[in-house]
Structures are given as C-alpha cells and as structure tokens.
Amino acid sequence: MKAKALIADMAGTTIEDNGLVVQAFAMALDQLGIENNHPKRQASIDFIIETMGQSKIEVFTELFGAEEAHVANDAFETSYLECIERQGVEAIPGVEELFGALEEKGIALALTTGFSPQTRDALLEALGWSNRITFALSPSDAGRGRPHPDMILKASELLGISEMSSVAVAGDTASDMQAGVNAKAGWIVGVLTGTDDEPRLREAGASHIVDSIASIESVIAR
C-alpha cells in the first residue's frame, strides 16, 4: 500500500539540527537571568530536551508560567534566528531528492514544526524551500502543538485527504510519534537523525524506524 501524503517534522527530521535548539535555549536562559550558576538552569535544559518537538510556547508556559512564557519564547526565537544566521542551516542529506521522488509518485507533502510561523518561515527561506513547500504548519496554525494531532489533521485537510490511514507521519521525537498515534496515521515513522533513539521512538508509537527520512520512500511508497 502506498501513502497518499507524508507529513514530516522540520528540525531533526528534514533539517539538520546540530544542537541549535538547545544552544538557542541556553542563550535565551542567559537573557532571562537563568545563567550557568542558577539552580533552575540544568533542569530547564533537561525539560527542553525531554519535550523536544512540542510547541515551544506551550513548553515555556510549563516552565515559566503563562505571564513569562511569551518573554521566554521571544528570547528563544531571537536566539535561534541568530544561530541560523551565524552557523547556517542545512537540509538532511538526500531530503531534497526525496521531495522530488514523492512528487513523481503522487505523494503529497506537508511539514510541521513546534516553532512559531516567523522562525518556520525563516528556516524555509534559508533552505530555499519557500516556493517548494506549499504547506508548512506551526501550532498556531492548527490549534495545539504536539503530542496533540492538530497539525497533522490540519495538514491532511489542506492536502485534501480525509482518511488518516493513508497518511504517513515522520519525526525524530517521541512527541512526533505520539501526535501520529493520536491522529491515527497509517504510518508513524521514526527517524534517527534527531533527538530520540529507537527504543524511545518505538515506545511512543513508531510503526517503522529509518536511519534517515531520505530512505522513507521504501516504507511508504511500496
């Protein structure tokens, strides 16, 4: 059976992360006064890693409370954009060839992310994908972030697909897998180019594991 659509995560799945998320968060903590000697610093970083893939604003609300969440999120987004500008950003090797192969096979594509629309669009622009990716969604575009299924369901709707059993979801975090399970996706594919290892992805609901999304075609386009 061939999937009708692939809905894939961005950072760590289709885009190299190279530790930029954690680096940007550490920079944001500095701006918030939670520096290296602060008792909450390591616990905050550990929580960010644990919740990787989830809506950043929701994570910051959990960490700092509703009033400080937007300040923290703004600091993180600014820091992340600075990291991109300074260090650059790269696609996962083989992913652009995958995009072409999916198009040839008639498999629709959408991307999702826990980042804000501003940061998402900056990533797409930096990679030259702005005109290539028709649908890229952030939590604010759909309602709730991962592990809720909202972004996957909204992306499927935009792609004109109503049967979730024909949709493949791919990501590098447990949150991605949980969102796929909650959306009742037909394929829930964990990739090993990002945050979580195979046991954690399996535990979170992955139906398949691939080393890289570049090789997902063998799973969803048989």
TrEMBL record:
GO biological process: DNA repair
Molecular function (Gene Ontology), one example: phosphoglycolate phosphatase activity
Gene Ontology CC terms: cytosol
Transmembrane intervals: none
UniProt-listed PANTHER family: PHOSPHOGLYCOLATE PHOSPHATASE, PHOSPHONOACETALDEHYDE HYDROLASE
Name used for this protein in its record: Unannotated protein
